[in-house]
Specification:
19 strands, alpha+beta, disordered N terminus, 20 helices, five-stranded mixed sheet
């Protein structure tokens, strides 16, 4: 069993899903191949035609021209611009403008954008001690915005400071959970000493010691927490208003709750950065803007990007999809998320696998999909938990149906096999505040009724859904919650990032709080341990694919929908593509200049 799974589970479920150029040099090559170093007009024909979904698999309006101002808007507040205190997916994407990390995602469209590549480091991490020790070497010529050199000590300090979750409550706790011997309540501001778990034998080498082997540590090294922070410039919780840049842009103006602006960092050396082309001269961000206003400004060309990447609202969606000229400027972007229903074997008769199979066969796949927004901007019908955006995912379809609205014949066969030929009664929980989950629950209620399964719907508040209700085994059993609405987005796109907290039975605890509401299979637990410790990427990905299949063999879940979101790209935006690494447009590649 993985150590400290309680904290890890909380960390991974918190991430908001919202929102890649193989390098500046590689981008130039690919753009030239697409039609040269400039865009060809509003539709971008020479650099990737503007058509519906074009940015999902390719680059739209490709251009290497620099200049102009890139305009973002946020319908709410930023959690924090401090790289050690942020946990929104869009913020991690945006932070690459002003921070660099040990590794990052390759800047490329689609699944290739989920590939890790070196950033500040010369290579991906080198593991030793069976995967419990990870070493990185920094590139030459790295500087902060004030011209001072970036050293391994600055990265060490950055990681150590964000361990203080009183000062920095928003960020993830992966380093707290996995670094060896981190004292409870450790803080650089009161303990005044470095951790033994992180070594910096010289200015270019950093070594991490873990409390357990973990083959995916490079994903930790790509978190904003590894963005260097100069100790003498750290102002604790106030650092967010004066972040010292290590990336191609630096903060110019910062007005809390209103706006901020980024301008070029003249100390950034493009020769050391194979990821960021740094095309715009300036980046403006406006905060707390009405969502409908953001949509209309996007459609009118008065705004370039809705930074949260939550997708355009219902009114704008209808407008865009009804107009062929507008539709070609939109993308139904796939996400690293699945909306699904957990089937609780602790509630009879779901302790019988055939009764669980009956639910999967009887479910109206199209109705469930429609509940979450349909095929465009909602998602694709899922046949397993692991979404196609996760590297190594393999198509699993163990329950083919005669119609997407459900297969009553197969469902009734399964009911007979489990001793319930006339059906049975059960309850279905969902989050009160989520209309899509309610609609999905109603669809399931109607489709299951056709085969004699009577479903009572039970809504619970989302704030305590996992801690007190669906996620608390004793409550779920007492209330007869045989079916429970669930959904998951990974902090990073790999098998561990997606599956580990959903299907490991050892994270389920009587006190509540787990995201795994139904999968209880010791064989799956053993497979997880093998995958976590596997150092070979191809073998590890195959092991996670095997786990995904094993979950469906046990009929522990109805997989539901592999999520998508409808994004809009104004015609003035250049180098637009969707990255699986960031669940939306790759911000580091975007430009607005025309030549």
């Amino acid at each position: 069993m993985l150590a400290k799974t309680v904290k890890v589970e909380h960390t991974m479920r918190r991430r908001r899903t919202t929102i890649a150029v193989a390098g500046a040099a590689a981008l130039t090559v690919s753009l030239a191949a697409c039609g040269g170093g400039s865009s060809s007009g509003d539709d971008g024909d020479a650099g990737g035609a503007a058509k519906f979904d074009a940015a999902v698999t390719g680059v739209v309006n490709s251009s290497d021209a620099k200049g102009g101002t890139l305009r973002y808007a946020n319908e709410g507040e930023w959690d924090s611009t401090d790289p050690g205190d942020t946990y929104y997916g869009y913020s991690w994407n945006f932070a690459r403008y002003y921070t660099r990390t040990l590794v990052t995602y390759k800047s490329a469209p689609g699944a290739e954008g989920a590939t890790l590549v070196p950033d500040l480091a010369t290579s991906l991490g080198k593991s030793s001690d069976g995967g419990k020790t990870w070493t990185y070497t920094l590139k030459d010529g790295l500087k902060f915005e004030d011209g001072s050199p970036i050293t391994s000590g600055d990265i060490r300090y950055a990681v150590e400071r964000q361990l203080d979750k009183t000062t920095f409550p928003h960020g993830p706790t992966y380093f707290n959970d996995f670094l060896a011997d981190v004292p409870e309540g450790y803080s650089v501001y009161k303990d005044k000493k470095d951790l033994d778990a992180i070594e910096t034998p010289d200015d270019k080498t950093i070594v991490f010691h873990l409390n357990q082997a973990f083959s995916g540590f490079d994903y930790f090294a790509g978190l904003p927490a590894t963005a260097p922070v100069p100790k003498d410039k750290d102002t604790g919780s106030k650092y967010k208003s004066a972040v010292v840049s290590s990336g191609p842009y630096k903060f110019s103006d910062y007005e809390a709750g209103k706006s901020f602006k980024l301008v070029r960092n003249d100390q950034w050396d493009a020769a050391t950065d194979e990821v960021r082309p740094a095309l715009p001269d300036q980046i403006d961000v406006t905060l707390n803007v009405n969502k409908d206003d953001i949509d209309q400004r996007l459609l009118s060309g008065d705004l370039d990007v809705s930074v949260t990447q939550l997708g355009i609202g219902a009114a704008a969606k209808a407008q865009v999809l009804a107009d062929p000229e507008e539709k070609k400027n939109s993308d139904s972007a796939p996400l690293n998320r699945t909306w699904f229903t957990s089937i609780n074997s602790e509630v009879a008769p779901f302790d019988n696998i055939d009764c669980r199979k009956a639910v999967i066969y009887a479910a109206d796949h199209t109705g469930y999909q429609t509940a979450f927004g349909g095929s465009i901007g909602g998602g694709d019908v899922a046949t397993s938990l692991l979404p196609p955006t996760i590297p190594g995912q393999q198509k699993v379809d163990l329950y083919p149906v005669s119609a997407q609205t459900g297969d009553e014949a197969k469902a009734k066969e399964a009911l007979t096999a489990c001793g319930k030929p006339d059906g049975f009664e059960t309850s279905y929980s969902y989050r009160t505040e989520r209309p899509a989950e309610k609609a999905a629950a109603e669809s399931m209620q109607q489709s299951l009724a056709k085969v004699g399964i009577k479903v009572t719907l039970k809504p619970y508040p989302q704030g305590d859904y996992f801690s007190l209700y669906a996620g608390k085994p004793s409550f779920a059993k007492k209330e007869g919650l045989g079916l429970m609405a669930n959904g998951w987005a990974a902090d990073w796109p790999d098998g561990y990032g997606f599956l580990s907290q959903l299907v490991d039975s050892r994270v389920i605890r009587e006190t509540g709080g787990a995201s795994n509401l139904s999968v209880r299979d010791p064989e799956i637990d053993k497979l997880i341990d093998l995958a976590v410790n596997e150092q070979d990427t191809a073998k590890r990905e195959q092991e996670w694919a095997d786990i995904d299949k094993k979950v469906m063999e046990g009929a522990w879940v109805y997989p539901g929908v592999w999520a998508k979101v409808l994004l809009y790209r104004p015609k003035t935006l250049t180098n637009v593509f969707v990255s699986s690494g960031y669940d939306g447009y790759d911000y580091s590649a975007l430009g607005v200049a025309k030549s």
